[in-house]
Write a structure and sequence with these properties.
The chain contains 14 helices and 10 strands. By secondary structure, the chain is α/β, with parallel strands linked by helices. The strands form 2 sheets. A 6-stranded parallel sheet has the order 7-6-5-8-9-10, sandwiched between helices. 41% of the residues are buried.
Length: 312
């Protein structure tokens, strides 16, 4: 109701929504307010195999009804398009694929000396650091990150592990860390505003998510010079070419993820080759400037179809 009032008062030509719940609520409000152009970005669907079947069906039904008056769906990966079509959410013509991109300059070089930051975190300068920037939630699967750390430690006893982020599974994660006797090895850094600097304090980036849209943290890690080992889910596979610019492992295969990480830590020529390819991928495919231009062009096309002249 508040959004309808807002849209009627402000009279925007375009309403562009993000995420599942706000995407549905925002688009219905835009329609009721008579907004000419309605766009939604799919950063991964709200429904997934780990939900109860009834909840899944409710999300799919809501998306099917809402897409009928959505002018364009921007998907951050082609896999999101395939999943939407499989669930009968719109037709292929409704979709445009535009990667969710980053400001490369923000992550290409640190503002703080990485060794100084390691010292603050209590990490020895010589210790290899496996890190992630994620959320302590079921989707991000932090317990597998802890289990992977235990296996890597068996091969590389000096390795340390850095988890940047917080969430509802913090207590469970801390309990597993204690159970595996990793209290001195895993640092739960919590929510931080200095993610670019923290990435430069790592040696390997790992992502144990069970499902994703297209996580921007992967190109962020790539441009920061980190080889990425991630679960082979959704948009991860659209960024990473296994064995070329990173490694993909099946969800739940903790042993393989640990093996890939150990291999990268022990084989410096391989690590350097992966990093070079990863930086090239991030620079060529995930420029924020290119993303903005593509969205701007799409806006202009949609406005023209509605007979509205875009103003500079």
């Amino acid at each position: 109701y508040k959004l309808v009032k807002l849209f009627k008062r402000e009279q925007p030509h375009i309403v562009h929504t993000h995420s599942s719940k706000t995407g549905i609520i925002g688009r219905w409000a835009a329609r009721l307010a008579g907004v000419p152009v309605i766009v939604h970005t799919v950063h991964g669907w709200g429904h997934h195999p780990y939900q109860q079947p009834l909840i899944q069906k409710i999300y799919i039904f809501a998306e099917q009804k809402t897409v009928s008056f959505t002018d364009k769906l921007i998907a951050v990966s082609t896999l999101n398009v395939d999943k939407g079509l499989k669930d009968h959410i719109g037709t292929r013509e409704k979709y445009a694929v535009i990667h969710s991109c980053i400001n490369l300059d923000d992550f290409s070089r640190p503002k703080v000396d990485p060794l100084s930051l390691r010292k603050v975190l209590g990490i020895d300068a010589a210790s290899p650091v496996v890190g992630t920037v994620s959320r302590l939630s079921h989707q991000k699967n932090p317990l597998d990150f802890v289990r992977m750390a235990a296996q890597v430690k068996k091969e590389i006893p000096t390795a340390r592990f850095l988890f940047v982020g917080d969430g509802p599974l913090r207590a469970e994660t801390e309990a597993l860390i204690r159970e595996l006797h990793l209290e001195q090895d895993i640092i739960l850094a919590g929510l931080r505003m200095d993610v670019p600097d923290l990435l430069h304090a790592m040696d390997i980036f790992a992502l144990t998510s069970l499902w994703e849209g297209l996580p921007r943290v992967i190109p962020q890690a790539m441009i920061a010079g980190l080889p990425v080992v991630a679960n082979n889910v959704d948009g991860n596979a659209e960024i990473i070419r296994d064995g070329v610019n990173g490694f993909l492992t099946p969800p739940g295969d903790i042993s393989l993820m640990a093996e890939r990480i150990v291999r990268l830590l022990k084989d410096q020529p391989l690590k350097q080759a992966i990093v070079a390819q990863a930086r090239e991928t991030a620079a060529q495919e995930f420029s924020l400037h290119d993303m903005v231009k593509k969205i701007e062009t799409l806006y202009d096309e949609l406005l023209t179809l509605k007979g509205i002249t875009a103003k500079t």
